[in-house]
Specification:
The protein has 287 residues and is α+β, with helices and mostly antiparallel strands. The protein contains ten helices and eleven strands. It has helices at residues 68-80, 102-117, 124-131, 138-143, 178-184, 196-204, 208-214, 220-226, 229-239, 261-272, and strands at 3-21, 27-47, 52-56, 85-91, 146-150, 155-158, 166-172, 216-217, 244-247, 254-258, 278-284. Strands 1, 2, 3, 4, 5, 6 and 8 form a seven-stranded mixed sheet that branches. A four-stranded antiparallel sheet has the order 9-10-7-11. Helix 6 packs antiparallel against helix 7. Bound molecules: adenosine-5'-triphosphate. Residues 61-62, 67-69, 96-104, 106, 137, 178, 249 line the site of adenosine-5'-triphosphate.
């Protein structure tokens, strides 16, 4: 085998809580992660030209060590002494800097693809241990599906699959710095902590409506006041039959949960009419 391709799914956070800020500056989180069927595609091809040669359809993305794909490939090549050249093409579909773990899922998929291409014989857990060295979200992106993430994001456990539904994704074209959002987060007795355990119970009961009634993301308290577009998108989704709508990660992406694809598509058209630029996409869950 000289070439292999792999789809790298995006993630949304259907629940995101920050429990406390640790003394070392890291935040202790409790998040429910869910993969959705919005993919980047990576194609890896063995090459006679030495080194890693990364290309992408997005001209503004770094193609050197600043790209997580490059770094993950380099890490495995060094560990396993792979010297022959490797061409990687990254076809980006997941919005960049959107709170959808785009870079992390690319890195996870690159490692999964290299494991097959070179027959490295690594298990998922082996890949997760290596991935966490490059980013806290990478182990989850190796695992995929529905999962609970705790600690500083490194403690992962699988939970039952989220009930079937359709997802409307809307990303306004504004830039949000994840680091800044966490820095600006104020935690006190008035902080609206989402009830993550209640959400897990709703998932276990396969009760989509109950789940949607309890979704929450504490980072909305920081990102929404700075970017009112997010609230406008949520409102548009809720007024157009969403069972629930929430910001993903530190934003600015917003998603809506629907029990019917036609309703999600109709809401997508309404979001397109909003008076600001917005990438919109309907999809469903990735198992
Ligand atoms: P998260 O949800 O984990 O916070 P994100 O979806 O908000 O991540 P990314 O799309 O991963 O953010 O991109 C954040 C930054 O990382 C970008 O500004 C980009 O320059 C850099 N980056 C490095 N590698 C990649 C990659 N493979 N795809 C996208 N961005 C990448």
């Amino acid at each position: 085998m000289d070439s292999i391709w792999i789809n790298a799914p995006a993630k949304i956070n259907i629940g995101l809580d920050v429990l406390r800020r640790r003394e070392d500056g890291y935040h202790e989180v409790k998040m429910i992660m869910q993969s959705v069927r919005l993919f980047d595609r990576l194609t890896l091809t063995k090459s006679d030209t030495p080194g890693i040669h990364l290309t992408s359809n997005l001209h503004f993305l770094p193609t050197d060590e600043n790209n997580l794909v490059y770094r993950s490939a380099k890490m495995l090549r060094e560990e396993f002494g792979i010297e022959e050249g490797l061409d990687i093409h990254l076809d980006k579909r997941i919005p960049v800097a959107a709170g959808m773990a785009g870079g992390s899922t690319d890195a996870a998929s690159c490692m999964l693809a290299m494991n097959d291409l070179y027959g490295l014989g690594l298990s998922k857990s082996d890949l997760m241990k290596r991935g966490v060295k490059l980013g806290a979200d990478i182990p989850y992106c190796v695992l995929k599906g529905t999962a609970l993430s705790e600690g500083i994001g490194e403690k992962l456990s699988t939970i039952p699959q989220m009930p079937d539904c359709y997802i409307l994704i809307a990303k306004p074209s504004i830039y949000v710095s994840t680091r800044q959002i966490y820095t600006d987060l104020v935690l006190d007795e008035n902080s609206p902590h989402p009830d993550i355990d209640r959400m897990i119970q709703a998932i276990k009961n396969k009760n989509l409506r109950d789940l949607c009634d309890h979704i929450g993301n504490i980072l909305e308290t920081v990102t929404i006041p700075a970017h009112p577009e997010i609230e406008k998108i949520k409102k548009c989704m809720m007024e157009n039959d969403a069972l629930g709508s929430l910001m993903s990660g530190s934003g600015p992406t917003v998603f809506g949960i629907y029990d019917d694809l036609d309703k999600a598509k109709a809401a997508k058209e309404k979001c397109r009419e909003l008076p600001f630029k917005c990438f919109v996409f309907t999809t469903d869950l990735y198992r």
